[in-house]
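Page 37, top half.
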Amino acid sequence: MTQKHCILIGAPVDCGKRTRGCIMGPDAYRTAGISEAITALGHSLEDLGNLAPAAVDVAPPSNPLVYALAENVGWTKTLMETAHKNAPRGMPIFLGGDHALAAGTVAGMAAHAADQDRPFFVLWLDAHSDIHTPDTTDSGNLHGTPMGYVTGRDGFDAFPPLSAPVDPANICMIGLRSVDAAENAVLADGAVTLVDMRMIDEQGISAPLQTFLDRVAAVDGMLHVSLDVDFLDPSVAPAVGTTVPGGATVREGHLVMEMLSDSGLVTSLDLVELNPFLDDRGQTANLMVDLTASLLGRRVFDRPTRSIS
């Protein structure tokens, strides 16, 4: 694998929902050895430490259920600017923090891709589609809205303007198993590639992923991967406040990461929703670090392609 310059960016976002604990996520990844795992694979590394949200003033939300709007907007501003600034220097790896952070990371990486005049794609590994808006959420938790924001849906007037909205046709969501009626209605037009757990049960996880990766490669696209702990089954990754049974196995998770590594397409990564308060002796943090290592080239065996003659 081509050696990368990896840039760790701590994003202790803990305002996208009311269950606290994701603020500890970035340091849990560091404790689990993410830096050592990356450098052991020959990549160079820098760690920018943990960021803080910008101070912003926002009008009260039209939906009274919305939680911590100003803090979420401040994080989006900070992360959008940080992603855009650092993307030209290497591969940003955003250590979350809840999934609200992706509003900023995805938007910032999309702006970078636009600067490069290259198509931008998102692989969303998550039990949820997170395509609500502040107006449609019935929980008020904005970690359910980042995909709504980056695709340019209405209702985000308090948030920074998007310089490069993400085309829904360039998004693939894998691992879905908890999508509500309002999100279903948005996704019904078929623009976003949807791979739910039933499809994975029936077809396996590699075929739909490879189809998407082939599309990215065909146009020399830049690929942002957003990995939510709840993509994985809670029996192997318990440290998340939004557990949904029936998720990906450890091997399915590693296969996805190995295929991404083989593709050479990934330009940025989110690691989100790790709540160390809910973990079992670091089990989830260690698994997420291992998956990151697989994405960056760790293998049990190298398997070169051999021609058959």
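Page 37, bottom half:
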Amino acid sequence: SYMIWRARSARAALLAIFVALFGFFMFAPRMHERYLYYPLVFLIPIALESEFLTSIFGVVSATFLFNLVYIKHLTDTSSYFPDQPNAALIGAASINLAVFFAVTAYGLLRTSAPLDDAARASTSGADR
């Protein structure tokens, strides 16, 4: 909410929406793997503008693909939920958790930056 409130551009708003949807996927219980698709949709337009976000897009896409392949395997073997978390599941979840915190920090640092001259001029003109 803070990132959306502080968003001064469409790029910052898209990043905030990505963080919100990715957090929804990460922290809601028993989340279906299809809900990882929606954050990726909001990351695509801004991923091409930053090397950091391009790498985040690649990592999240890879974990999304792993998630789909793993769930497909479980569905085919009729054991939809694994009895015990294994190293692959813990690894993918840890990577996604690290990505969530990295992108959240990146977004907070970007939104807490002081206004540039153009943004300052447009906000001061609105106060008159």
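Margin note: The chain has one domain: 2-113.
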